[in-house]
From TrEMBL:
MF term (GO), any: glycerol-3-phosphate O-acyltransferase activity
High-level lineage: Eukaryota, Metazoa, Chordata, Craniata, Vertebrata
Record SMART domains: PlsC (SM00563)
Keywords attached to this entry: Acyltransferase, Lipid biosynthesis, Lipid metabolism, Membrane, Phospholipid biosynthesis, Phospholipid metabolism, Transferase, Transmembrane, Transmembrane helix
GO biological process, one term: phospholipid biosynthetic process
Organism in which the protein naturally occurs: Denticeps clupeoides
Main location: membrane
Protein name: Phospholipid/glycerol acyltransferase domain-containing protein
Length: 419
């Protein structure tokens, strides 16, 4: 049986709360579909997954079909690259991972269905009642809890930070962090199911997880203590970071230090070498993905000689969209959306610890861990870099295709059957 802890709503039992919401969503969806059918309207967008059927064939096989043989460059080879370019534009695997997926059922939060019109007065009244409940009752309660949790975290970690280093300080620090993070999780009405807790990260290791939202940190930290890694900030966030590091050995980098890979690797290596320090929590994707996929893991944390503890996180989008599109929403706006949703429902799987095998480089190890997380969380395993969200394709990807094409030409010239 999975280890389940469900903070839930403060006034309603979690099970009744969730079942009631699902019944309401189901009824609202049936009303939508019936109304759309009566008006002869298309309710949902056409599915964008699998528009183009792609067979797993090699570059040489695909080029051979239009050209019909020959070992040298042929103008018809351009057709292959043109076709692949058009396919990538039509069925873009990257861009659609940074937009919220459309639900097949209406959760009374937003008009996520692009062609949704007024269906009935009852649905409108139900949606309005939901707005009153969420913004008039749940939101003030959740904001109060969030302010309380953050306030206690700052005050109590400051007090613990004054204590001399000892087992007592470490014990109090862990208890304070767990208590405060659990209060913050309750501020989101989080209903979390933890699986396979025997595999929870241990001291001297690195915990890596897929990244959907900033609240991923709260989800994991409310079930165990971690040392955080991140860039040092100014203002209120910087004040909180400085307070946290007094009681717990977090690792904050200055903006100029983040680009120094050797410095980052040394700081991480020194931390995991001390078995008395908490496991490090890292999200190797480097950006938030929309809860459907896992994208390329940066190799930095996999170059360190230590045990990796993979964790898969999967949110239930029916109760609220946990994905943070940082290009579209600021942090405050995103947190307002989360606190005004019905709940945050998710599952967390602790996978067996993994170590780098003999002859395996950091990139191969990262891909192996990523694949394990994708399989466990039911996510799509993609090779693309999440950094493409904000930047152009790196030249190295273009060079790889050029080298692959050159190898095909050379091999065909050396093969007498293709002469």
């Amino acid at each position: 049986m999975p280890n389940t802890r469900e903070p839930g709503d403060l006034l309603l039992p979690c099970g009744i709360y969730m079942k009631t919401l699902l019944k309401i969503f189901e009824w609202a969806t049936l009303r939508m579909e019936r109304g759309a059918k009566e008006r002869n309207q298309q309710l949902y967008k056409p599915c964008s997954n699998g528009i183009i059927a792609k067979e797993p064939v090699s570059l040489e096989q695909e080029i051979q079909e239009p050209r019909g043989g020959g070992g040298e460059f042929d103008m018809s080879d351009i057709l292959y690259f043109c076709r692949r370019g058009v396919e990538s534009i039509v069925d873009d695997e990257v861009t659609k991972r940074f937009t919220a997926e459309e639900l097949e059922s209406w959760n009374l939060l937003t008009r996520s269905n692009y062609n949704l019109h007024h269906i009935s007065a009852r649905l409108t009244v139900l949606w309005g009642l939901g707005v009153l409940i969420r913004y008039g009752f749940l939101l003030p309660l959740r904001v109060t809890l969030a302010v309380t949790g953050v306030g206690l975290l700052v005050v109590l970690t400051s007090i613990v930070g004054w204590l001399p280093n000892s087992r007592m300080k470490k014990y109090l620090s862990e208890k304070v962090n767990l208590m405060c993070y659990r209060i913050c999780v309750r501020a989101l009405t989080a209903i979390i199911t933890y699986h396979d807790s025997d595999n929870k990260p241990k001291n001297g290791g690195i915990c890596v997880a897929n990244h959907t939202s900033p609240i991923d940190v709260l989800i994991l930290a409310s079930d165990g203590c971690y040392s955080m890694v991140g860039q040092a900030h100014g203002g209120l966030m910087g004040f909180i970071q400085k307070t946290l590091v007094k009681a717990c050995p977090h690792i904050w980098f200055e903006r100029s230090e983040v680009k120094d890979r050797h410095l980052v690797a040394k700081r991480l290596s020194d931390h995991v070498a001390d078995k008395t320090k908490l496991p490090i929590l890292i999200f190797p994707e480097g950006t938030c993905i929309n809860n459907t996929s896992v994208m390329m893991f940066k190799k930095g944390s996999f170059e360190i000689d230590c045990t990796i503890y993979p964790v898969a996180i999967k949110y239930d989008p029916r109760f609220g969209n946990a994905f943070w599109n940082s290009s579209k929403f600021r942090m405050v706006t995103y947190l307002l959306h989360m606190m005004s949703s019905w709940a945050v429902v998710c599952s967390v799987w602790y996978l067996p610890p993994m170590k780098r095998e003999e002859g395996e480089d950091a990139v191969q190890f990262a891909n192996r861990v990523k694949s394990a997380i994708a399989r466990k969380g039911g996510l799509v395993d993609l090779l693309w870099d999440g950094g493409l969200k904000r930047s152009k394709v790196k030249e190295v990807f273009k060079e790889e295709q050029q080298k692959l094409y050159s190898k095909v030409l050379v091999s065909r010239q050396e093969d007498p059957e293709h002469s």
